[in-house]
Amino acid sequence: MRFFIYNLPIIFLFLFSACRQETTQMVSADSTSTLQAEIQLRLAQKRELNQLRRQFINSSVGRSIARYKPIIKKYSKRYGFDWRLIAAQIAKESGFRTKARSHVGARGLMQIMPGTAREISKELDIKYIMKNPRENITAGIYHLQKQYKHFPDARKDNRIKLALASYNCGAGRIFDAQTIARYYRRPGNRWDTVSPYLTMLKKSDWQLHLQVWPSGKPQYGYFYGYNETINYVENIWTLYKAYQRIL
């Protein structure tokens, strides 16, 4: 269910802003007219930010976000998410292509698998998740919130990242990685400490598995898509932070 759309101008904006902050710190330290130099830099940064914002709003992804913003905001608020996070997730999942379909059969803006769609259809009493873009968004946000509930001991940012990872590869993979993290006495409620252990769910890691699980293998089976999941979370998070600056 994993598409590839990644908005380079937005990433540039995010990185550009970080660079401008570093430049401001350097000027503040070295310039004899610190305050004036800082004001000039902030004004220039604001102008360039506004220009990039206008460019983004007029882009295809920007127009798509505007089109679906009411439904995204409605259900993001209902389920406790920043709507810009959901916009970033949709941009990553499908690039706002309503007829997007992955090689494993996931469909729609939020790339929902058929089995997941059937479950959510019963829980929310909606019928056209795989065909109706608005129902697809509704179901996707609801499904993300279900993943979020799996990690009550994590702080908000880490909880969201763990939920995104779970949305991508299934909660079981994350549970297994958490189990290995705890085996090594590492926090199981932080994405940065859990994510490296996703790479240790391969069959070739059987010696470790013998130490961790009585059965000698991960509870939820072997996993080889760890790079995709790790990149999925990091890409969405970077895009989300960029969207926070311009939306």
Structure description:
The protein has helices spanning 8-30, 34-57, 60-79, 83-93, 114-124, 133-148, 156-169, 171-183, 191-194, 206-212, 226-246. The chain has a domain at 1-149: Lysozyme. Helix 3 (60-79) packs across helix 4 (83-93), helix 3 (60-79) packs across helix 6 (133-148) and helix 6 crosses helix 7 (156-169). Mean pLDDT is 89; it is low at 1-6. The protein is built from 11 helices and no strands. With 247 residues, it is mainly α.
Question: Outline of this structure?
Answer:
This protein is mostly helical and 247 residues long.
Key features?
66% helix, Lysozyme, disordered N terminus, globular, mainly alpha, 247 residues
Low-confidence stretches: 1-6
Largest sheet: none
Query: How confident is the prediction overall: mean pLDDT?
Result: 89
* Helical content band: 55-70%
Terminal-residue CA separation: 26 Å
What is the count of helical runs?
Answer: 11
CATH topology of one domain: Lysozyme
Globular, elongated, flat, extended or rod-shaped: what is the shape? globular
SS-based class = mainly alpha
N-to-C SSE series? HHHHHHHHHHH
Strand content: under 5%
CATH class category name of one domain: Mainly Alpha
What is the β-strand count? 0
* CATH 2nd-level architecture of one domain: Orthogonal Bundle
Radius of gyration computed on alpha carbons: 21 Å
